[in-house]
């Protein structure tokens, strides 16, 4: 899969280091909410974190980002891609169980971030792994009717904010949940050769 400006291993380490050094950011003052989009669609509203925060559909995800100092990363870093699970996809009860291990939670959330701008045009018609901010891989799949990131469906693509792109997903992503490459189809077995016809036996009179 070819994606321009693919995140290198060094860039992944850099993103992780920036997250580790990020200071707890004071919650941004709520910006004026944009007019509601039809069908509850996410609409751009400034940078990545403000767009998510003011939407009202990503409260648990934003709370997790705040708790792990990643909100500052999404506010100041340029050209990021974020796969954002809705509150239905990332329930508060799940976050509560993950809060006991904040370093682990931070690494889990970095898996939802790519240190490059990857819009749907780079996903459609292709399938393959892309390095995530956590240093592991996200398998992007645009080979079918629905775009996918790992095990999650992208239910709204290409929300273009001032410093990156958001793809809304319908469930939490699990690293390693799908294979990076699909197995080659097994070759069809050759049809069995028909047994040779036996010559008729003539009885002696």
Give me the secondary-structure topology.
Layout: H1 9-21, H2 48-55, H3 59-67, H4 71-76, E1 80-85, H5 92-98, H6 102-110, E2 113-114, E3 127-131, E4 137-141, E5 148-149, E6 152-161, E7 164-169
Parallel strand pairs: 1-7
Antiparallel strand pairs: 1-2, 3-4, 4-5, 5-6, 6-7
Characteristics:
205 residues, 6 helices, 25% helix, disordered N terminus, alpha+beta, seven-stranded mixed beta sheet
Short synopsis of the structure:
The chain has six helices and seven strands, in the order H-H-H-H-E-H-H-E-E-E-E-E-E. The chain is α+β, with helices and mostly antiparallel strands and 205 residues long.
Mean pLDDT: 82
Number of helical elements? 6
Biggest sheet character: 7 strands, mixed
Strand content: 15-25%
Would you identify the regions where 5 or more consecutive residues have pLDDT less than 50?
A: 1-13, 23-38
What structural class do the secondary elements suggest? alpha+beta
Looking across the biggest beta sheet, what order are the strands in? 2-1-7-6-5-4-3
What best-fitting shape do the alpha-carbon axes yield?
elongated
Care to count the β-strands? Answer: 7
Helix content: 25-40%
Head-to-tail CA distance between termini: 77 Å
Q: Tell me the radius of gyration.
A: 24 Å
Helix-strand sequence: HHHHEHHEEEEEE
């Amino acid at each position: 899969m070819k994606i321009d400006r693919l995140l290198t291993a060094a860039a992944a380490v850099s993103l992780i280091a920036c997250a580790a050094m990020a200071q707890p950011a004071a919650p941004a003052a709520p910006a004026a909410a944009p007019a509601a989009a039809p069908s509850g669609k996410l609409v751009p509203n400034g940078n990545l974190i403000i767009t998510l925060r003011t939407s009202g559909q990503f409260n648990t995800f934003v709370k997790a980002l705040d708790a792990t100092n990643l909100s500052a990363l999404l506010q100041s870093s340029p050209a990021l891609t974020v796969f954002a699970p809705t509150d239905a996809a990332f329930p508060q009860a799940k976050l509560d169980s993950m809060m006991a291990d904040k370093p682990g939670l931070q690494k889990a959330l970095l898996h939802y971030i790519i240190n490059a701008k990857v819009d749907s045009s780079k996903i459609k018609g292709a399938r393959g792994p892309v390095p995530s901010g956590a240093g592991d891989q996200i398998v992007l799949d645009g080979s079918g009717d629905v775009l996918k990131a790992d095990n999650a469906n992208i239910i709204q693509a290409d929300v273009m904010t001032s410093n990156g792109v958001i793809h809304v997903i319908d469930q939490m992503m699990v690293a390693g949940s799908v294979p990076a490459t699909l197995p080659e189809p097994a070759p069809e077995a050759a049809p069995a050769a028909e047994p040779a016809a036996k010559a008729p036996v003539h009885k002696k009179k």
